[in-house]
Design a protein that fits this description.
single chain, 19 helices, 2 strands
């Protein structure tokens, strides 16, 4: 038993009421509520806490509950999420331990196979993920979840045709809103990979229509719009996402959209004063955006060079230094900084 699971056991020994006082509980109902709470995270920031309370209630009543271990396994890797497909390794290891325990208690538990495959996907162990996916298929051949699981594996293996086939089948056969949203998200990846951008855009809009209150639906669409250089729309959807929920990825992507708009204004439209405002806004949302500091430095550089304004050129020097500090390999910033130093030296003479 892993550290996380042992901690739960020790905590329960110290704090739980006697088993008799727990009474009879409906494990399945509590488990389903816990899964719903996890599904609503991160839109509902308290989702994981709610799920943990419900699953611990099951565990208190029955420490040998396969459902409790399955739910806690999913909770473990969700808590270890960092960004994109990156997870804390210890959290994934703990999830494996909990899913293995669940399957030892109930070898035919579909959810233990289904959710148990995901930590392997995040570790890029696709062979083991397929083993559990096949077992889930054998337990429930008609589950749309199985198609979704195989589609997730196929995505990591860059098999766009398989992802599209499986995702479309989920959309056609399932009435589960979350599964349909997840299938559309996979389709959007397919269409982008195939450069079918018109279909990708329609797919993102379908996801937003399915759940207009989802900050992730809107921020993912914003990121897609950035790839098309539709910066004004990307900024709008980024702001909409942050109005729903204040989250780091939202600020990061909005910063990219603002920076992209600044780049277009500076290099394409030759409007450094306006570009400067967008670069400054980008930095407000992500102070680690090296490209935004580079753009800001270039804007100050252009304004200072035109007006022979030492103060503006010094601001440019500061911004370019910051860009290089954040990204030591930023060659454009290095070249611009060397040129700026020559100009500053000439201006000060």
């Amino acid at each position: 038993m892993g550290i996380f699971c042992r901690f739960i056991v020790y905590a329960l020994i110290l704090t739980a009421p006697s088993m008799a006082s727990c009474g009879n509980i409906d494990e399945k109902a509590l488990y389903e509520k816990a899964q719903e709470a996890i599904d609503n995270y991160p839109g509902d920031q308290a989702g994981l806490v709610k799920a943990g309370n419900l699953l611990n209630k099951i565990y208190k009543s029955n420490p040998q509950s396969a459902l409790a271990h399955t739910g806690l396994g999913r909770l473990a890797y969700k808590k270890g999420y960092i960004n994109y497909d990156n997870f804390n390794k210890e959290s994934l290891a703990e999830a494996h331990s909990l899913f293995e325990k669940a399957l030892s208690l109930d070898p035919e538990l579909f959810d233990a196979c289904y959710y148990g495959a995901y930590p392997y996907i995040y570790e890029q162990n696709y062979q083991q993920a397929k083993v559990l996916a096949q077992k889930a298929l054998a337990i429930n051949p008609n589950s749309a979840k199985v198609d979704l699981l195989f589609a997730e594996i196929a995505k990591r293996e860059n098999d766009t045709n398989e992802v599209e086939r499986r995702s479309l089948r989920v959309i056609e056969t399932s009435s589960n809103k979350k599964l349909i949203e997840d299938a559309y998200a996979l389709l959007s990846w397919v269409y982008q990979a195939q450069k079918r951008y018109d279909l990708a855009e329609k797919t993102y809009k379908k996801i937003i229509k399915l759940d207009a209150t989802s900050p992730w639906a809107k921020i993912n669409y914003s990121r897609f719009l950035i790839s098309l250089r539709k910066y004004d729309e990307a900024i709008d959807y980024g702001k909409q996402a942050l109005a729903i929920m204040d989250f780091g990825m939202g600020h990061h992507i909005l910063s990219q959209a603002l920076c992209g708009k600044g780049v277009a204004l500076y290099w394409k439209d030759k409007r450094p004063n306006e570009a400067k405002r967008f670069f400054e806004a980008a930095i407000q949302h992500d102070s680690d955006n090296a490209d935004a500091y580079y753009g800001l430095g270039m804007s100050f550089y252009s304004i200072g060079h035109r007006n022979k304004n030492v103060a503006e050129i010094e601001k440019a020097e500061k911004a370019l230094n910051k860009s290089i500090q954040l990204n030591p390999d930023h060659q454009q910033a290095k070249i611009a900084l060397n040129q700026l130093k020559l100009l500053l030296s000439a201006v000060k003479k």
